[in-house]
Amino acid sequence: MKEQLEQKIWQAIEALQQAGTLASFVIPAIRVERPKDEQFGEYTTSIALVLSKLAGKNPLETAEEIAVSIKKQGAGEEKVFEKVEVVKPGHINFYFSQKTLSAGVADILKQGNDFGQSTLGKGVKVNNEFISANPTGPLHLGNARGGFYADSLANILRKTGHEVVNEYYVNDAGEQVIKLGHSVLKDEEAVYGGEYIDELALKFAGAGDAEAVGKVSATYVLDEMIKKTLQEKMQIVFDTFVSERTDVLEAGYTEKAINLLKEKDLTLEAEGALWLRTTEFGDDKDRVLVKQDGTKTYFASDCGYILYKMERGFTQIIETWGADHHGYITRFRAAAQALGLQTTPRFIIVQLVKLAKNGVEVRMSKRAGNVVTIDDLIERVGHDVARFFFLMYAPETHMTFDLGLAEERSQKNPVFYVQYAHARLCSILRKAAEENLSYASADPVLLVHEKERMLIRELLFFPELIDTMAQDFSAHRLPQYAMRLADKLHSFYDACRVIDADRPELTSARLQLIQATRIVLAETLTLMGVAAPEQM
Questions:
Q1: Hey, CA dihedral for 472, 41, 86, 78, is it positive or negative?
Q2: Which among 518, 513, 521 has a CA at the least distance from the CA of 456?
Q3: Rounded to an integer, what distance in angstroms lies between the CA atom of residue 24 and that of residue 309?
């Protein structure tokens, strides 16, 4: 609806130009937004303020002309907006008609869980790589934050028609595996510590030298720690685990990528090493592919991995990285462009997480040394709470995980507040079923109460929200929307009696609204990967 409105405004301005009411100039981008205060309608635009400067006219007068032009265009059409209002200094506010609101409720009931689905990403095959923690120890809070975020983003992208593959890249060919071996052997080159290292030492300390011990230990960490955490604790499903050692290096993709770059004349030899001309693609300096001693760099492996993604037919690459990898973005993009990827890789950079209770940083276990594992946190607060809390914040912001609030088993906890809203909806519908109350043929046009209209409006913004998140990767909007929808529901419930024996037609209409709200709230929770309980 937002896009349709932007198009109508553009057409109205074009009509004014053709009529000579407005000067002829290139029409700037039309921006339609939701007003912060609901009394100013469902949508608002300040385009008249922009146009008035270009046309040298009074903004209020320009806004009035645009509003009249929009109304003329809509003459004879079914009313989408009941009112188009101009307010100082030149804003145009749009108010949904009752027919639009009631039709929206009917549409939600008809589409069910498919409400909000779109074809925005049709034909786009997405490689969604995330977490990809080195197989050297248990997953920690930073891994969890990026993991939950990217997993929810995958759900959003699938709902908008994208073909998404969740991928975990296993860094099992680098120095970190040898460092793990030294740590298990507990020699002077040991790096990692914690109870899990003691466990690995008991199992594998006699497996050979540091490299041999590191390899067998890394395999164990991946299979018995990381994968179990992903599946059993975090409830994240990866479609594929890609091994740097076997799938990229031994399969020849790194060598293949280097040869391809040579063929494109994008490499140079200097100081005894082979370099990629990444400066031609916006990097601040060229990067080494092969060192003087003939060994390939980690960047060369990256090139091989990018080529491996491309040869599997992916047209969009999404990388979720920790903040410490921010400096690698430009060179990664340069490599992708050099290899011939037609789209620009997208990055989600995840900032650090602190765990605190009553303002004091918390340490929960010694299993992974000086870090808190996601297993520890989920065992303490539960999967739904952990996931919801991490999703509440944009990944690029620093986050303090409020353990005190997370442990709160009441509606003060935002997760339980939203889940209770869903349980309340289910309870109302169960009661209606017990009383044999049908709402199949109800008329939602009866839903004229202010609180009813506010709730319906929130429901109708859901498809727009989904498309927005699919485009700007703002998955943190999901919990924000869920809390806002729960607010509107509780406000409606407090003001409007749903089951009223004296008003059967209104009861049926309100039951339709209850069912529509349940559908949207349940789908919102599902996209987050959070349970939608029917009872609490």
A1: positive
A2: 513
A3: 48
Per-chain mean pLDDT for the chain? 95
Express each pLDDT in 83-102 by its tens digit: 999 999 999 999 999 999 99
β pairing state of 43-45 and 81-87: unpaired
Distance CA 188, CA 210 (A): 12
pLDDT digits (tens, 9 = 90+) for 198-227: 999 999 999 999 999 999 999 999 999 999
Tens-place pLDDT, residues 286-332: 999 999 999 999 999 999 999 999 999 999 999 999 999 999 999 99
End-to-end CA gap in the chain: 36
Angle at 353 between CA 476 and CA 134, to 5 degrees: 100
pLDDT category, 467, cuts 50, 70, 90? very high
Looking up tokens 């020849």, which residue turns up? 252
Look at residue 364 in the predicted model and tell me its pLDDT. Answer: 59
CA–CA separation, 143 and 129 (whole Å): 12
DSSP code, position 345:
P
Measured CA to CA, the distance from residue 235 to residue 447 in angstroms comes to: 39
What is 21-82 written as a DSSP string? SS---PPPPP-EE--SSGGG-SEEE-HHHHHHHHHTS-HHHHHHHHHHHHHHHTTTSPPSEE
Least confident of 14-28, 200-214, 373-387, 493-507: 14-28
Measured between alpha carbons, how far is 152 from 390 in angstroms, rounded to an integer? 11
Mean pLDDT on 124-136: 97
Chain centre to alpha carbon of residue 432? 36
Q: How far apart are CA 136 and CA 129, in angstroms?
A: 19
Residue 51 CA, chain-centre distance (Å), reads 34
Distance between CA atoms of 533 and 526, rounded to whole angstroms?
A: 11
* 3-class secondary structure, 461: coil
| Whether pLDDT at 371 is above 90 | no
Nearest to 305 by CA among 243, 245, 248: 248
- What contacts 24+ positions apart, CB below 8 Å, involve 62-66? 62/22, 62/90, 63/90, 63/91, 63/92, 65/16, 65/21, 65/22, 66/9, 66/12, 66/13, 66/16, 66/92
H or E stretch covering 125: strand 125-129
Q: What is the pLDDT of residue 133?
A: 95
Helix/strand/coil (H/E/C) assignment for every residue in 278-325: HHHHCCCCCEEEECCCCCECHHHHHHHHHHHHHHCCCCEEEEEEEHHH
| Beta-sheet strand order (sheet of 125-129) | 240-243, 163-170, 125-129, 316-322, 346-350
pTM of the model: 0.92
The pair of three-digit structure tokens given for residue 41, joined into one six-digit string: 């309608």
CA 116 to chain centre: 15
Predicted pLDDT at 77: 63
| 479: pLDDT strictly greater than 80 | yes
Q: ω into residue 135 within 30 of 0, thus cis?
A: no
